[in-house]
Model the fold of this input.
Amino acid sequence: MDARGALGRYGEELAARRLARAGMTVVARNWRHGRSGELDIVARDGDALVVCEVKTRRAGPFEHPAAAVGPAKVERLRRLAECWLAGHGGMPPGGVRIDLVAVVLPRRGAPVVEHLRGVA
Done:
């Protein structure tokens, strides 16, 4: 695994821990649907299904990780969520929500993990 892949995996681990601490249940990580793409984390929040995109960045002159989730990415996440639902029992009673976990790794100190609910 290259450095970028390791950074992403670390961010996903921090995100999964944050979601669990918030009372959510992680049901899948890195779920792939052929070449269509990947859902970083699929979780349950009560009776809702949560598709969670994780963006990890090192601190520096780069934009906030949330800025990397534009309209095309949101549309891809929606399509992938539909594929997940088709193969896992359909729409849950609480519906589907798309969340983002932004992870920023400073040069020193603890990572900053921000959970943004319902970004799309």
User: Anything to note?
Assistant: The domain at 3-116 is CATH 3.40.1350.10 (Trna Endonuclease; Chain: A, domain 1).
